[in-house]
């Protein structure tokens, strides 16, 4: 697949919804890893409590990985002298398109999950406040607003970095400030609005991943063709980091490291039938992320929550069922009449 000239690209594509180098094919291995990361989020949420047994932490790499990759994909021109695939939009145009791509789906899904929670009796009208526009009515929605803020800031930093070497160094150096959350494991905040508190807290812990993604993108690291040998080393480091978190509990620095090493591994170019198939499913990774909590609640209700238990075999069954049904639901919605519009407005595929 080659990249079309600017005139042939749709406005979202021209705005960097998915940014790729000229003449490059879609990276099936990256898409396959995205699929695994999406399932990692499902695995974490399968457990009844957020701080469950060691096995739950096997999926903690997912959010750092998604954050770094999201920055890399939109940061297609870190240096001003590099040839352009398409003309970069102005910052205002970029913000508008990202708002449509990320925050509009956030609002739509927020309404869906709010109605569902009201129907279950777990959310009342009096519980809705300003935090609803930040944390959302479901635990995973915060990530869309976080990505919107991060990508708009990163694009502004790219524009500043294009003004010269001094500004590029200054922008990279400013990312060091965003590493502070790594040294504050127990950060909490109390505004009196639980959804807003939740958004601030999880965004605080995800900030280092965004800063690492930004700094490495400004350095051009995201454009490397990682050789197979280095890819295997990165995968080994990812596995070691995941094992450390499973053994010792939550460690945000190690979780961030696992996301970075997996992101580096994912930009390698492994091929194969299984990778191509899994890569095709990887296009639905964000959709799975957005729908899985509703599907998970339905699965728990169907099998009678008290009977699920907390033993790993039971949870694996719930995880597999939720993952498969979430994928099938996304594929079904995309194939409905006006499925392309649904995919765009609900961020089901990309």
Describe it.
With 350 residues, the protein is an all-alpha fold. Helices cover 63% and strands 0% of the residues. Helix 3 (62-74) crosses helix 5, helix 5 runs parallel beside helix 7 (194-218) and helix 8 (228-248) runs antiparallel to helix 9. It is globular, with a radius of gyration of 20 Å. It starts with 10 loop residues before the first helix and ends in a 5-residue tail after the last helix.
In short:
The chain has 350 residues and is mainly alpha-helical. It has 14 helices and no strands.
Helix and strand content put the structural class at mainly alpha
Assembly state here?
single chain
Question: What integer is the average pLDDT?
Answer: 83
Stretches where pLDDT is under 50 for at least 5 consecutive residues are: 1-24, 77-86
Largest sheet: none
- The proportion of residues in beta strands is under 5%
What is the count of β-strands?
A: 0
Shape: globular
Helix proportion: 55-70%
Pattern of helices and strands: HHHHHHHHHHHHHH
- The number of helical elements comes to 14
Terminus-to-terminus distance: 15 Å
What Rg do the Cα atoms give?
20 Å
